[in-house]
Amino acid sequence: MSHQPVSVRSSVRVTNHAQSNLAKTPREGDNRDDGTSIHSPLRRVRPATAETIIEALNDQERALVADVGRLRVVSGGQLGRLHFPSTISGKRQARRVLQHLVHQRVLTRLGRTIGGKSAGSTGFVYSLDVVGQRLLDPLSPVRRPWLPSHAFVKHAVMVAECYTQLRETEQQGAIELLDFDAEPACWRPFVDRRGAHRILKPDSFVRVGVGEFEDLWYLECDGATEDLPRIARKNQAYIGYWQTGKEAVYPKVLWVASRAGRANALAACASELPDEHQRLFAVCDLNSFVGIVTGAGEEGKQSNE
After folding, report:
1. Residue range 38-93, pLDDT digits in tens
2. What's this model's pTM, rounded to 2 decimal places?
3. How far does Cα 31 stand from its chain's mean position?
4. What Cα–Cα distance (Å) separates residue 225 from each residue in 98, 117, 229?
5. C-beta of residue 57 within 8 angstroms of C-beta of residue 68
6. Residue 142 DSSP class
7. Element at 217 (helix H, strand E)
8. The domain 153-303: what is its CATH number?
9. Is residue 297 over pLDDT 50?
10. Are 280 and 252 within 8 A, CB to CB?
């Protein structure tokens, strides 16, 4: 396995792979200004009305909607960190903008929160509503948002947290975030050694510029909801994909655990693999995630040679 440096193209920025596949929303809730409800009872938005709303969006709002489309589910706190100053006035502005986008049906606020009551409005989670879908993918059918399970939301917000931390790190000049593809844009179809058609389903694919290198990662965000035998099967899926040789430069698989104890369990699971396969994987907890990525150097570059 050799390590080949790859030149970083400084003009490249994160590509937009907007996903508009949250469908079928619940009907409950109103749109009171206290921020305690989901959104107003559903009303039809005529195409002409949607176009008027879209034309009125400013650059900041469009960038915010693009991030929601890329990640599918994002918390209000993460959107605040991504697009607004970390000041009291910036936080007020974030609340106003998000409330406005929900009212215009650009975004929908889901009936799930992260962090409990103490998180306040920053704990609300958002996805695309019908106008946001039309903005990001005008040729696809518009679908009404649906209410995902708590487990889905918790996992999706963890993926969004990885993206948020990478963007914050980029703003500090430590890395250049070149690509962040969440599901399903990051999925990889392949034929295994037995001739079976399979799909590798990472939580995200990440390409970052670190110094003179580009580091490639498949991220697996783990909230300790799956047993270790299932984790081991997922590792075998990555090994099977690696064995196809489809990737000229094979991304390293980074398991990101929600807590340190779980990271130790994931590392122990990977340690049972043969040495040749162990080096395809790395493990960290969410608190050390940025340190792993920014200190990667050769860590994330694995070829099939």
Report:
1. 444 557 889 999 999 999 999 999 999 999 999 999 999 999 999 999 999 999 99
2. 0.83
3. 27
4. 30, 23, 12
5. no
6. P
7. strand 213-222
8. 3.40.91
9. no
10. yes
Q: For 226-239, how does the pLDDT look when each residue is reduced to its tens digit (9 = 90+)?
A: 999 999 999 999 99
Hey, where are the domains in the chain?
A: 47-147, 153-303
Going from the C-alpha of 262 to that of each of 119, 159, 290, 299, the distances in angstroms are 24, 17, 18, 22
User: Taking a C-beta distance cutoff of 8 angstroms, is the pair 158, 94 a contact?
Assistant: no
What is the SS3 assignment for 183?
coil
Q: How long, in residues, is the chain?
A: 305
Give the DSSP letter of residue 42: P
Locate all alpha helices (DSSP H) within the chain, ordered by sequence. 47-56, 59-71, 76-83, 88-103, 130-136, 150-171, 228-244, 260-271, 275-278, 289-294
123 contacts: CB under 8 Å, gap ≥ 6: 75, 76, 77, 113, 114, 115, 116
Q: Which two tokens stand for residue 177?
A: 């975030």
| Residues whose CB is less than 8 angstroms from the CB of residue 151 and which lie 6 or more positions away in sequence, other chains included | 223, 225
pLDDT for res 117 = 55
- Percentage with pLDDT > 90 across the chain: 68
Instruction: Give the angle 266-271-277 at the CA atoms, nearest 5°.
Output: 110
- The domain made up of 47-147 has a fold known as Arc Repressor Mutant, subunit A (1.10.10)
Question: Distance between CA 265 and CA 28 in Å, rounded?
Answer: 41
Q: Is the dihedral of CA 258, 264, 265, 271 positive or negative?
A: positive
Cα radius of gyration rounded to whole Å, the chain: 20
Q: What phi, psi does 283 have (nearest 5°)?
A: -135, 140
Residue 288 has pLDDT above 60, yes or no: yes
Whole-number mean pLDDT of the chain?
Answer: 84
- Alpha carbons 87 and 120: distance in angstroms, whole number: 16
Instruction: Name the CA dihedral angle for 106, 112, 113, 116, rounded to a multiple of 10 degrees.
Output: 160
